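User: Please predict the structure of the protein below. I'd like the answer in structure-token form so I can feed it into my own downstream comparison script.

Assistant: Understood. Taking the following sequence of 118 residues as input:
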Amino acid sequence: MQDQKMRKGPWFEEEDQRLTAIVRLLGERRWDALANASGLGRSGKSCRLRWMNYLRPNLKHGRISEDEEKLILQLHQQWGNKWSRIARKLPGRTDNEIKNYWRSRLRREYQVQGQGII
């Protein structure tokens, strides 16, 4: 891969299918070797992040429920910005998704309620 130019930018559905197939075949490990075997021209890090944040079969897609939102608020008060730790309490949600949800929605609501600036 060192001689070839690494592909960057948005992922295509065909690439997602190829990555999913190779992960099913080889497993979720050694992402650099997996990236080379897939022939996608992507880095191992890019493949790992795509799998972890978008393609894993056990991920929940869609809106965060009110119960999940309350739990995020509660755990954030308890642990602060420990997104990975919070994500472990919300099966199917990624730390990145929770962090983005906090920064885009919950933080403002929390501030508006007069509970302090975070």
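That's the full token string. The mean pLDDT is 87.
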